[in-house]
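S., here's the first fold you wanted:
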Amino acid sequence: MKVEIEESKLQTAYANACDGVKDFMESLFGKKVFEAAKPTLDDYKTIRTYEDACKALGEPIFEDPNNLPNHIIALMKLETISRALWGRNFQPKPDGEGSKVYWYPWFALWTKKEVEDMNPEQRGALLSAYAVGGAGAGFGCLGAIGRSSGALAHFGFRLCQETEEKAKYFGQQFIELWAEYLKFNFTVGNRLK
């Protein structure tokens, strides 16, 4: 009997295994197969879990002694993951001139069909979700308008990535944490394996 296992699935299993199982897998397949699976700041795709991010950054795993709300814990974990995804050499800094582009994981909370099927009252509530000083589709935002200058902050810079590819990975791989952070009534979809 011949059994074939995709390397990416094997590495994911290894990353989620306890030490004894990791030792067994290394003896069975060889250590070299799993070197890429170890979380590192040099390859963002090795960061598959919050624990991977902590390991790569050399930080302890957060334990909540104060019973913080779940969405706050999720935000703290997302910030840690975001720093790990930035990598070893990337130091994000806000750019006052606006010449740098950063990417944020963006989520469609409704499909086009769901919006079309809404009654006028539901659609009106959806379309009025964006307001200055309010929330754009459930994301907190602040606005300073009507003074000598204007400034808007639609989402947290700490959760941005320097490439669109990384932002997409961040949103899809950690979708459960994003759902907990945003805490909206939607179902969790695809997660990268």
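And the second, which I think is the more interesting of the pair:
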Amino acid sequence: MSNNIASEKAVLIERKGKIAYIILNRPEKLNALNAALFRDLDLALDELEHDDRVSVVIIKGNGRAFCVGYDVEKYKSPSVIEDKNNLEGYTRRWLRVWEYPKPIIAQVHGYALAGGTQLVACCDIVITDEDAKFGFPSLPLGGGFVGIYWGWHIGHQRAKMLDLTAGSRITGREAEQYGIAAKCVKANELEEETLSIARGIAKTPLDILKLKKQAHNRIMDLQGFRTGIMFGPDQDAIIHTADGIKLVQQKIAENGLKGAIQWFNEQDV
């Protein structure tokens, strides 16, 4: 790894010519999102934004997964206002990825779940492999926060079908067919195919890339992307006060996350 970023960092940077990798580096936790990862992600984005030697950024995960979402084991129950403010902080970070002046490609393998799909949905291009799994949290821990990101890419019916079913998953091939991924390849081709696409983009002068990306984003803005995404924290903070959410949190406290998932899946409906 380059750039003198130590191996213990939660996010690493690696350069290949005009391409830079941002590598999520909590492999033992399947790159679950926590404060350390967010801090290092912000630092990596800052560094590469101001480096004119870099034209394209690829985000990928170390280990067996791209990102399995937020680290819910340490979830606390703040006030509604505190909750809303925290969720807005996450949302503004994803919007920063979406607004980032340079093209960002998500290279997805393993699992991309829950909050990890918010990151995916805010990247410009998503390349995945056939073995990948995209999906939603295994427990209904909120609502209106993750699913609305999916709706922009796969349509509202499919987004509702998946979001309303806790633990729903689609394959990398389905992600391509649905529209949340631009391309799906065999697992042993993912690294080279993503790099090849990035290199093709990087041939275009950086000033042109910035303007072209901005033009595409402005169309999404006119369609309400930013407004819709910023509605998510309000909705999610309200849903976190629901009795059903409190019951799920109680089961997590009593049985741990895996035990709570087992309890939920064994319900007789």
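Why I say that: The longest strand covers residues 11-16. Confidence is low (pLDDT under 50) at residues 1-6.

Talk tomorrow,
H.
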